[in-house]
Amino acid sequence: MISGHQIRRQFLEFFARQGHPVVPSASLVPEDDPTLLFTGAGMNQFKDYFLGRRKDLRQAASCQKCFRTPDLEQVGKTASHLTFFEMLGNFSFGGYFKREAIAWGWEFLTKELAIPAEKLWITVYEQDDEALGIWRDVVKVPAGRIVKLGAKDNFWPSNAPADGPNGPCGPCSELHYDYGEPSPGNTCRTNPCRPGCPCGRFVEVWNLVFTQFDRQSDGSLPPLPAKNIDTGMGLERLTAVVNGLRTNFDTDLLKPIVDAVLVETRATTVSPDVKAIADHVRALTMLIAAGVVPSNDGRGYVARMLLRKAARHGRGLGRQEPFLVRLVPAVVSTMAPGYPELAAQRERIAKVVLVEEERYQQTLIEKQPILEGELRKGLTAERAAWLYDTHGLPYEEIEAVAQAARAAMPPRAQFDQALAALQVKSKTASGFSGAVFAQTLTGQIAALGLTTAFVGDAALEGKSKIAAILQDGRPVETLSAPAQALIVLEATPFYGESGGQLGDQGMLTAEDGKLVVEDTKRVDATIVHVVRLVEGRVKVHDPVTAVVDPARRRQVTRNHTATHLLHAALRAILGHQVHQAGSLVAPDRLRFDFTSSEPIAAARLRAIEQQVNGWVLDNVAVQVHHDVPMAKAKELGALMFFGDKYGDRVRVVTISEFSKELCGGTHLKATGEVGVLTIVDEGSVASGVRRIEALTGEAAWAHLKGAEGQLLELAQQLKAPREQLGDAVERLRQQARQLQQELERLTLKNAQQQAQALVAGATMVNGVRVVVQTVPGADMGRLRQLADALRAQSAAGSVVCLGGVADNAVSLVVGTSADLAVRGITAQALIARLAPVLGGRGGGRPDFAQAGGRDPSKLPEALGQVVPLVEELTKGR
Ligand SMILES: [Zn+2]
Ligand SMILES: [Zn+2]
């Protein structure tokens, strides 16, 4: 058996020998691209090279961690579908083309991995005679094993010549492996059986994409000036093929996890449920390692759904209690040879999984009855949306329960619509859907293909030219006031929102127009000003003077440098397992999210604060190193957000020896400019993630002075020196306790006295002593107390009925002595007749009952009925 880890190494070494720099996998979480939830292909991280925006690499090879969910439902049911997988690929950016890509592909599989040549079949695009010729005449694959396919199967993007989109595209050529017979349990009815046949005899191993055309709107395909190669080969499938195995789940990349699932679920066969659990828990581990934490939106939502899906498969196998957490060690040890960084994160990953599993269990226990009730009523899209919004039950969850109960489920689109309507109403739209800018405009901005030079590190003012204007999402040449638009300059001192730091505000002044910059965003290499044209007009190519609001920038910068200090202090005090999980750097505050499974004790929080302020007082220089080779940054030990951010030249910000981070934000010259930092809040934002909110500079000063002012005011009110405030408060509390006890004693005494008076004023009805009384201002508790006192003083044969109104609520209590029960008089019987008069309901024991109402005017009427009622009940008995 050749292990998957060895094949990965062999692949990268092979292409390194062919002159390919080996580039590490990008993070599963593409942090620079808000439109993309997860990295799904090897070429994602090379987008700038493919588009010709970067030219420092001509070719590269990588093994990319990928995560995809479109085929989620298939996972476990088929031999090959996975959510997480690794993709091997070699890439050429305007360098080598078909001939080399084909020859190397063949050589790697047949020589390096020794797959017998006769086991490999080739597909080519039907009009790509060039590729066909290379396979047949250069590689010498017999023509009988080369299959021509149409643009649906062998063109990227699929069917692009006919259907678009416009832009770079091209034919593909695939290498297929021939198992020699249909997959187990299948028969083949196709003649001839060839690649593409559904019988399972052939599996696609490697796809070579030759990006050579630039499709136009009229459907024509002129050649691209720089042709690219983009190949992709799933490591799991390749490992299966090389070892003669039929499914990905039999390879060493998944088999140990499958075995662990069998042990934990006590399942005896490798069923679809078992395979799905193995895939999901592996993907979940990799996602959490990349910094994703289960939550109710964005990436976290996907992780949450994946975990719940796995847990449901477990329930299908009879596992009710959390068990996925026990699979994490198997995943870590299986993946560790390729991803050694997982070992250090094992504890954290396990904790996140456990917390989330327990939360799911809790949700099921609490929400199941509500959900079942709704399903019985017939679930509408509006109710389903309500279940999500109010009870946190996602669509998938509701659907699973509905399916089990064979209940109807509203379609997803209707649910989404209903939810959107609900959230617009309650303004609780999630962060991800709130990023309207990112979703609607990044595409158009990326299409401009503009690179903006950021010159705002050195100066907050500068002269430049308008490179593009976008209005309502479309490029325009001119703009007249009043108008709102997006403007791209050739160079700008404005910082575009990224890395948690908010964008700058300020002014752009052209010869004929004035623009207020309300926000600045960044889309890849393009800095975009969100502007309001307040007077005159501007047009593309106009020279402008750009001026950043200096006060706001200064506050933001102060907070940004402070996050680096906070990060360093957290790691110094809590330990190096602490990782940044997100941040927000605004002018008025900063927020720092980090991984930690437990709350930070107050003493440690103080120590963290003290450490930061110590560094501030030391006034240490902040150094920004531009254009550092990635390898060098790693050597320095610079912290990278999510662990494996890619870029071969990076910007490193260091503060003495204690803080080294990859960072593109703006920074102070020295830590002293922070002034002071004060932590104002610490709490949990998601399982395994804590958040600290802090203030710096003037805001921190104002906060501290405010607190001091409150303290002074308190001291004045309590007439005590500040140092003795604690004692003064303690004295007050003691006094309050004594007064409370005294009050209770007096209240009881008062009730007893009142009771005596009431007993004296009782009415005799057929030998029954009846006390009926309104007690002004008494609530239910007070009435009960009084009734108890009365009953203690009354002999046999007595009825007590008291009413009161407090806070507009009407209360009525009835007590009867036990001996009256034989005469048909019980408190329950009386209250049953009196409660309707109050317009309410009542209840209680035979000797004591109560009722309430909302209409004080009904109380006299109710009390007036007591004596006639006793008369009626006792007549003739
Ligand atoms: Zn077949
Ligand atoms: Zn930073």
The end-to-end distance, rounded to whole angstroms, is: 99 Å
Helix content: 25-40%
Beta percentage is 15-25%
Tell me how many strands there are. 31
The rough form would be described as: globular
Helix/sheet category: alpha+beta
Cα Rg = 37 Å
CATH architectural designation of the largest domain: 2-Layer Sandwich
The small-molecule ligands in this entry are:
zinc ion
Discrete helix count: 25
What's the pLDDT, averaged over the residues?
88
CATH superfamily of the largest domain: Bira Bifunctional Protein, Domain 2
Number of discrete domains? 5
Name of the CATH first level of the largest domain: Alpha Beta
Write down the CATH topology of the largest domain.
Answer: BirA Bifunctional Protein, domain 2
Description of the molecule:
There is one protein chain. This protein is an alpha+beta fold. The protein has 5 domains: 4-246, Bira Bifunctional Protein, Domain 2 (BirA Bifunctional Protein, domain 2); 255-433; 436-548, Elongation Factor Tu (Ef-tu), domain 3 (Beta Barrel); 553-705, 2-Layer Sandwich (Threonyl-tRNA Synthetase, Chain A, domain 2); 748-874, Diaminopimelate Epimerase, Chain A, domain 1, CATH 3.10.310.40. Helices cover 40% and strands 25% of the residues. Strands 1, 2, 3, 4, 5, 6, 7 and 8 form an 8-stranded mixed beta sheet that branches. A 6-stranded antiparallel β-barrel has the order 10-13-17-16-15-18. Helix 8 (272-289) runs antiparallel to helix 9 (298-316), helix 10 (328-335) packs across helix 11 (341-377) and helix 21 (725-760) packs across helix 22 (780-793). It starts with a helix and ends with a helix. The model is unreliable at 425-440 and 642-646 (pLDDT under 50). One zinc ion binds at residues 182, 188, 190, 193, 197, 199, 201. Residues 499, 560, 564, 653, 661, 663, 665 line the site of one zinc ion.
